[in-house]
Amino acid sequence: MNAPALKVVDARADAAAADAARDARAEVLKEAKETAAETKTVAKKGKKASKRASDGWNRFVVDIWLTDLNFTEFGIYKRTRNRAKSRQFTSDMDIFGEIIENGERTGLFGYREEIWKKATGMDRRLVFKLFTPNLGWRATMDLMVGRSLQQTIGARGLPVMTYSINTDDDNYIIYLERSANKWPFMPEHFSFFIIDSKGTPEFYRLKRAFINLGGDYALIDQNGETVGYLDGKVFSIGGKWKGQIREGADKRLMTVMKLFGSMMVFNGECRRHMKRLYKGVLAGKVKPELDRQETDLYMNPRRVR
Fold this sequence. Notes:
alpha+beta, 7 helices
């Protein structure tokens, strides 16, 4: 390609980048205005907001979309603008669902499509994130392949997945694990704990209903009391779960429940993935290796730096 042609290509690339930057700045300004407007609205309508929660429950809906053709990613330079808004929005991020609260969209879910759909063996990882409607990062949930494989080997082949949950307003990582204490055809359980500001842990478990078709779970605290529900809709195309948490509960519980609901669309494939890894490692066909991002989560915080 000659010099004039290269200059034309560079000029077009610079123009495209400039357009993307302008769009990104415009959307950031729009987001700031919308946030200010919402703040005023909440201040004026505070009584109505308290009335909605007067029954003692905070509710949300996890709605999984059927296709990738959505408003968040569709359009020229859309992915470029999304990455400009948040470093957490990677080049392979695929938005696949939303959170609805009080009839309004309050969050979006995305997962790293390339490392889940295209990778194999130990390189295959499930990483999905919760964003605000304007793609501000809220939380990340990772399938810990190493820890999950360890648990699966210890359970002699029963898939036991471990997920790490990192939120934007917490100093601690939350680890959610599937229980190895499971008989065939019996409901599965997941468990986790949350550490409060005083360093005190609070323990919870998610118990799947014995008879259910859509994926129904009850959130039970360490005292045996039910403090939340996740109700899966049977006849839904992509997937839909209605959740509720008792009013006044730790707000991180709401985040965990939202992430858990979005994980349900991957739950069956995650079990099969760990089963294949277990068999592959035992047969010597799979070499145990961990991704650098996952090994960072296992680092000793007291190591000499």
